[in-house]
Amino acid sequence: MANEEAEKKKNTTSSEAKQPLKTAKKKALGWMEWLRGWFYLVYEMIFQRILASHLQNPMPLPPINDLTCIVTGSTSGIGREIARQLAEAGAHVVMAVRSTNRAQELVRQWQEEWSGKGLPLNIEVMELDLLSLDSVARFAEAWNARMAPVHVLINNAGIFSIGEPQKFSKDGYEEHMQVNHLAPAMLSILLLPSLIRGSPSRIINVNSTMHYVGFVDPEDMNVVSGKRKYTSVVGYGGSKLAQIMFSSILHKRLPAESGISVVCNTPGIVLTNVARDLPQFLQVGYRLIPYFIFNAEEGSRSTLFAATDPQISEYCEMLKADDWPVCAYISHDCRPTNASEEAHNIETSYKVWEKTLELVGLPSDAVERLIEGEEIKCRYGNSQE
Ligand SMILES: NC(=O)c1ccc[n+]([C@@H]2O[C@H](COP(=O)([O-])OP(=O)(O)OC[C@H]3O[C@@H](n4cnc5c(N)ncnc54)[C@H](OP(=O)(O)O)[C@@H]3O)[C@@H](O)[C@H]2O)c1
Question: Which ligand 1 atom sits nearest the alpha carbon of residue 98?
Fold first, then answer.
């Protein structure tokens, strides 16, 4: 622990030296950062198809018969494509979903479509509701009890309740923050024993270019203090930035010997159910611009690339060796790219890391203890529903 603290201090200090103006006292994104963020979003929207024109669709996958991949939110949109394509490439796919009936129906349909093309698809369905931290803990307990490996965990499930008023989960957290960041972060930590068993393994977080317009105040992760006005963009952008910040520290804390790579990626702007909360007239507009917007198959490529490309682990190790402040970030056109300027604020990233572990009821040294093979206690998971 002393070494870790020294390492943490070293990282923080070197970052402060490099970026003296970025302190945790910052209250919001600067105007220039905010404008640059929106510029990136518009740029992605207009040029994503051109930038990704070198990619095949569907993306050819390497042989993955020996991989077990957990995909959250695989009943719809990008996650549905990811699960189907991984299964068709031979992987054992676990659909971690809140609607198990819908997932079973999809599996039945995919098996039918696949029939005659190869061995039956190896897919199973497990219940996971990210709006309940009890459900996350129960999922991890059930999986870890099998003593089976996980090679790829894809934290795909997400919400963007556009224009909706602020809502809170029964755990008391703002819903974007819980579904898009807190619950996947908790799942990643709790599944570490299985990811170690599957090493070399990967945690892939389906993130978003919207993190460029996001800001996280670690003292006010749920945007309740009144210091900032809540909008769905504040909720969504903040949750995606928090995910990158947490992932960056997880990436640093996992020793190279663990063989676990942590990656965030952006799928591009994709026509899925994510826009279900848009007003009707905007939904029509959204569907009228298919030339610019990826379909779900195109939108699944950066995640599938991050999950299966053989060079990803090497790239992550290189970032770690260089003491780069942010974990690997893969763009919609499957190229390593840079996360936002704010994501490089390592002092805030450490605070987000600590606050996240506190909010999900895990000890601050959870990673180190799990790596050592110790069991850890979690505040959630024992209550009956
Ligand atoms: N579409 C885009 O343009 C875009 C751009 C950037 C990033 N992303 C990210 O891509 C990811 C996938 O989004 P999508 O576009 O494919 O949206 P989608 O079609 O709405 O799919 C979201 C999935 O997440 C699941 N989910 C939502 N709340 C959940 C909960 N409480 N517990 C468990 N699962 C839950 C949904 O399950 P149900 O079917 O049961 O609702 C669904 O399967 C998200 O993380 C999103 O932020 C999307």
Answer: 33
Block residue for tokens 């390593």: 336
Query: Measured between alpha carbons, how far is 32 from 37 in angstroms, rounded to an integer?
Result: 8
The percent of residues in the chain predicted with pLDDT above 90, rounded, is 83
Q: What's the pTM value of the predicted model, to 2 decimals?
A: 0.92
CATH of span 66-371: 3.40.50.720
Cα–Cα distances (Å) from 380 to 40, 50, 141, 383, in that order, read 38, 46, 11, 7
**Residue 16: pLDDT over 70:** no
What would the pLDDT profile of 217-256 be if each residue is shown by its tens digit?
999 999 999 999 999 999 999 999 999 999 999 999 999 9
SS3 call for 37: helix
Ligand 1 in contact with 239 (CB < 6 A)?
Answer: no
Taking the centre of ligand 1 as the mean of its atom positions, its distance from the CA of residue 73, in whole angstroms, is 6
Task: Yes or no: say if 246 and 361 are a contact pair by the CB < 8 Å rule.
Answer: no
Q: Which residues pair with 204 in a beta bridge?
A: 154, 263
Q: Is the CB of 157 under 6 A from ligand 1?
A: yes
Nearest residue (by CA) to ligand 1, atom 44, is 158
Interatomic CA distance for residues 302 and 305, integer angstroms: 5
Which residues belong to the active site? 236
> Residues 31-67: pLDDT tens digits?
999 999 999 999 998 999 999 999 999 999 998 999 9
Structure tokens at 336: 């390593």
Q: Which H or E element spans position 187?
A: helix 183-190
